[in-house]
Each structure stands twice: as C-alpha cells, then as structure tokens.
Amino acid sequence: MALVDPATFLAAALAVVAAAVYLYYYSSQANQPDIHPLQLAQQSSVASIRESPNESPVYRAKTTPTGTPLLETPSSGLATLTDALRATRNLHRPDAVQYLVAEKVVRLSSDEMATRISGLAAGLLRISAHPSAVAILLPASPEFLVAYRACIDTGIVAIPISAAIPLASIHAILRHSSASVLVTSAELAMSLADYVKTTSLTHLVITGELDGSPPAEALRSATTVVSLAELESGEAPEKDAVVAPADPAYVLYSLTDASATPCGVVITHANVMAAVAGLLSNLPASQAITATDVFLSTASMANAANLNFINIALIHGCSICAHETTDAESFATYAYSFRPTLVYLEPLISRDLVQLFYSHIVKYPKLEYNIFMAGYRRVVDSLMRGMTPKWSFWDFTYFRHYRNVIGGNLRLMFIDGPSTPSKSIEWLRALHGARVIPLFGTDQTTAVVTAGAFYDYASAIDTHNVGAPLACNEIKIVNSEESVGLTANDKPYPRGTIAVRGPNVATRLWNSEKPVELNDGWLELPFYGEILPNGTIDVIGTRQTVTKSALSPTGLLLVERLERALSASRAVTDLCVVVSDPASKSIGIVAHPRPMELFATAKRLKKEYKMKQIDNYPWCSEYIRAKLVETAKDNHYEWFADIPLENIKVKLVSEPFSVANNMAKADGSNNRESAKKLIDSLSK
C-alpha cells in the first residue's frame, strides 16, 4: 500500500487549516453581531420638545416612547408584591433556599419555607395584633427571607437593616423607625443591649439563645424575648391580608454616619412592582428569568438594589443562595458550590473579584501570560464589535476554567454602574462570559432608574455609562446650581442634575411629615449626569465630589470621573482622589497597588518590597505615581499629566479598600474623609 506523498499531505492539512480560519474569522456568520448595530445606536426615546431652556429633552426607554404609559407592573394581574408572591404558592422547588454549613450545601424546599413563613406571619400577628413595623437585622440567611416574606404576606411594613453598619447607626434607625418588633440574632441583640431601652421595641424575636450575661438580662427586662423557632411553629393565618398598591412594603434606611439624622424612604408595593417590571423588561425574551434560575445574594439583604433581585427571585420561584460577603475568595467558594445563574455584585466585591483573578494570571510564565493576554484581547475585540466570542483555543484552555471557578453557569451579572471602573466591567465580561449589566439608582427610586442594554457589550467600556432609562422611568438633565455651573446646553453633551420621574419613585418618608420634594412628579437626585449621543447616561459625580478646581482647565473637577480614568491602570486596584480646596495646585491620591505588579517590578529593578510594610519603600509610591500619570495621558487627561510630580502626592495602603479598614463606606463608595487624613499625614 503506497504511502501518501508528504507534500500532498502537508498541502491538504494547510488547506483544512486555511478553511477553518476563513470560516471562523471571515465568514458572514462569524462576523455577524448578536444584534443589529442600529438597535444600539439610539437606546432612548427622546422627546422632541424641551419644556425649558434650563433642561434637556425627556429621555425614555424605547419600549415606552413619549405619549405611552410608563411600565408599572410585569403583569396586569399583579398589583402588589404580596399578589406576586402568592402566585408562586403552587411552585414546588427542593432548593428554594440554599446556604453553606461547615462547607456543605444545605437546602430548604419551597414547602419547608412556606411552612416557616406562614407560621411566623401568624406569630407576628399573635405577639402584636397591629405592629407598626418589624425591623429585620440579620445577615443574608434563610431567616432573613422568612421574616421578610412573613411581613410582605401579612401587610406588615418590613424595615431591613444591614448588620454591617455601626451599632450607633442601627440604634438611630431603630429609634427613628418606631418599630415594635425586631427580628435578629442573639449575638446582635446582645450587642444592642445598651440601646434597646431607648427605642419603641416591645418584642425581640431572636435566632439562637440568649445566655445569662448582663446584656442578655438587660434585654429581657426591657422587652419580651421570643424565639424565632417558637413563632414559626404557629398555625397559618386564617385568611390572607388585604394589601393595596399604595401600602408600604418596606422602608429603606442607608445611614452609615451615626451623627446624621436618619431618613427612611417608604417603598410602596406599587414602587416595588414598577422597579421589578423595569428590570425584567430590559432583558430579551430569550433571557427571561425563570424558576430554573439560581440567584446568589452576596450583598446585604437590606441593600436597596439587592432587594430588587430578591423580589425578582421570589416572584419567579428561583433558588436563592444566601451568603453575604465582600471578599472575592469567599464569593468564588460559594459560587462554585451553588452554581448561580444570576448575581448582584457591590462595587467592593466586583473590584476584588477582578483583582483575585488578575493576581493569579500574572503569575503565569511570561510566554503563557502573553498567550493568555492575546486571547483576552481577541475576546474584548469581539465584544466591542457586538459579538459573543465564539469557541476558541483560549476559551478551551483558559476562560472556561475561570468561569467554572464561580460555578460555570453565570449568565447575568448586575453591578453598581457609577462605582465600577470600566476596566473591571471589561474584565468581568471577557473572563466570565456573563452579561454584565450596570445599574444606577437611589433609595428614593427603589435603587434603579437605568440599566445597560443586554446586547450592548461595549457599554461602560469604550464610554463609561449606566445605560438608558428603564421602562418604568423617564429622565432629564436640569441645570445644576450656579456654583457648579453644569447646564443642559453644555457642549458637546448636556450636563447637569439628574431628574427622574416614574411609578418606582418614592413619594413618602417614614415617620416624617415632610414629603419627598417633587416638582410635577420629578425628583432631582444628588447626582450630576451627562447624556451621551446614543441616549445613555453617564453619572459624572455627586454634589459632594464635583468641585471647582484650579487644576482642571475647565475650572471644574469631576473627581469620580478622574478616579475611573486612573483606575484603568493595571498598577492599582482601588484609588481615591483628594483635592484640599479649589485654589490648590496639588492633588492627593490614596491607592492600593496590585501586589503582583509591585512584586514583578521589584524583581526587575532588584529592589526590596513588602506589601504589609509599603510605607517603608518610597520607590513604590514613585512607581505608582508614574503609572498613574501614564494612564492619565492614555485617557486624555493631559492636564493631570502636566501637574508637577512633586504636586501629585501618593499614599499607598497595604489592603484593598473596605469598610473594615475605613477606606470604603457600606455602599461601596470611597471614604473620602479617611483618604484626606492619609494625604494630610504626608505633609507632617
């Protein structure tokens, strides 16, 4: 039998390779965007008439153009959150709630949860026939969901409180809320023993048991202490409570400063349903959330944005995985066990997650690292051209592995848009293969008013933005106060205060005779925005951070926008800009550098370096400063690069920004007061 001629074999092999390359890279199918580009060219419906020269036209979702009603509910038969949750009574799911105990997954079925919820609902009515409100102070857990659902089912106002805020702030919220019942853990209850007697609490419903310590005795003398398990063992209510759309569902408090006056925003059932409808309408029909989805709740269940997704998961009968963390390694561990399809990530954990994976990848040998980055750039190129990356060598060898580390099933990742750098969004989209959707909103808008378009893969990468208005909202830009000087007539794009209107906008404050200030239904947010040509919105700063400055050629410094630009540097993970006063010619930067970046540089320059003793190595600050100046030039901040180096003060910190080290606030934003103290210390 004659052997195949080597030249013929080689030619045939080359022809096969060439055909594969052509089909993969150059065929019409391979280069077809997932959605026609014209559908993303204008993502808002824009009113043709401006009501005033001091404001922009009104922007709406394309699904609710001017002249049509704003979306108020996902279904005409569901007027309240209570209605929507009752509609899922016949859903039977063996893993309705999941959590880890001793690294083992524990599952509660929907039938078990229903029994606990109905029992607690009856128990709450039994201990207090007409409780004005029930405060829930628990970490993410089945007990939180049981207490929350029991309140919604009975029409009791739920007041979720994050356990991560200071005790003095928790006390201030409890006093202001006038809640008569507090559901909490024995440990948290005892930490509040000195405060309880000055509140309106009559009953403490606790998980666990109180001991015989003085704090426990103080609690018993000040309130009636009841076990949560005992209340859950009661009979179900005889009949369903009657709940109206205008009734309060829950109250949002976001107090992080104990010295501030508490302000609770009343979120009605109508507000909740409008927010849910707006978020759901932003997803194409092929990506609709169903009972097969698994939602991993990593943020506090008292977090306003996270509550929207808890509501969505409850309405659709999704499995809810309860785990509260700001640590990326902990998130990855739980995600690997739970295999979620949906997740909402706060800024701290999204930035930490990027750092976690990047710090692993930079440890590759140089050749392998270059191969990985070539694949990464190819994926980003596909995304920027509107295409989901097809199968490739890199996907098989690298990206699939990192997706599997967080369960491998993640398809929707919702993030806080204003506080998440563009490079982090790019990294999350490219590496994990999920749709990363930036959101924006405040407590008074049920935490959402905009969202990135599902198919806009370039969203918030090429031009940072938080998407277009949801179908339940309309948005406009109005001139800012004169001291700032942002106007709807600014060139090239209108800039100013963001104003919002819609059925998800709260109109009442809890225990306050002062109404929410609205102008013909419009709520002016404490944020400045810019409307981009495609109808999306960029949040350019807050009233506290947009300031006059002699450094900027325009005389106006958009601190948060500068931070996002500098955060594009691969040399840092977290960064906070500090400007002492408008006339100052210097600028301060507090940053946490990427450990592997400094390690590799120290090795190359043959310098000594220890992250925990970063203050002892001046070369590290000089290196990071040079990298930030380089990044500023790349991002068109030439004026920053032109500042004399001695006027750019850099203070490095050895840990990522967190609430624990006082560099971040509970909402994920930078703690600018702490950053300023660190910069001031450099001058001493």
UniProtKB/TrEMBL annotation:
Protein EC: 6.2.1.3
Gene3D superfamilies for this protein: N-terminal domain of ligase-like
InterPro entries: AMP-dep_synth/lig_dom, ANL_N_sf
One cellular component (GO) term of this entry: membrane
Key words of the record: ATP-binding, Ligase, Membrane, Nucleotide-binding, Transmembrane, Transmembrane helix
Record SUPFAM superfamilies: Acetyl-CoA synthetase-like
Record-given protein name: Medium-chain fatty acid-CoA ligase faa2
Organism in which the protein naturally occurs: Coemansia pectinata
